[in-house]
Amino acid sequence: MTNLDLYAKAEHLLGIEEATEALYDLYRSELDDKDIKTLLDVGCGRGGFMTRMISDGVECKGVDLSSVMVDECRAEGLDAECIDVSEVTGKYDGVVAIFDVLNFLNQDELIKFLDAISDKLNDNGIFIADINTLYGFSDVAEGTMSSENEKEFLSVDALFEDDELYTKFTLFAKDKDDRYIKYQDTIVQYFHKIKTFQKLSGLKLVDKQTFSLYDTEDKTLLIFKKR
Predict the structure, then answer these.
(1) 68-82, pLDDT tens digit by residue?
(2) Residue 55 CB partners (closer than 8 Å, separation 6+)
(3) Fewest beta carbons less than 10 Å away: which of 19, 76, 97, 134?
């Protein structure tokens, strides 16, 4: 099991449903007045955003590096693959990367990722993503929490230092014989300064908006157009 698969397995215990829905609404409002007929959702998760966009008449494809997430998308009849965005074929009117996707990439990975995004966009295509602000990392994400239900117990311990957030997930889950199985891994996220996005060769940053998911200015929405 990869660390992203562990995250997928534990996500329902994190209490982020309301924040996720708020992000979906924000992205839909930004795409609403654009001429988007085809959409690529990078880091599509369980496909919640694709489902909403399909209901708006948009043809959608999703990619995610977690096979757990992709399997759930496919079970819902969605077009999803467990591949890197650079492996995607075709071009799209819009691309989205929702809920910290860019923060899971270090600086070198980020530039390669954004180059690949540019390559997947049609002329005048739009790319929208959100990133954590410095405050979002240091005052919201950092810390400890736990959550449980009848069959699972999750502990999360996050430390932010040197512009990197190290989050250790420890999940205990009952198997079919009522024995607890332990899963543990660490996910690293990276703080990115806005200037990183202002000097890209294939994408032009046309708008940025700081907003709040947790009653603080913890997020920045980035909107790009293909150069």
Answers:
(1) 999 999 999 999 999
(2) none
(3) 76
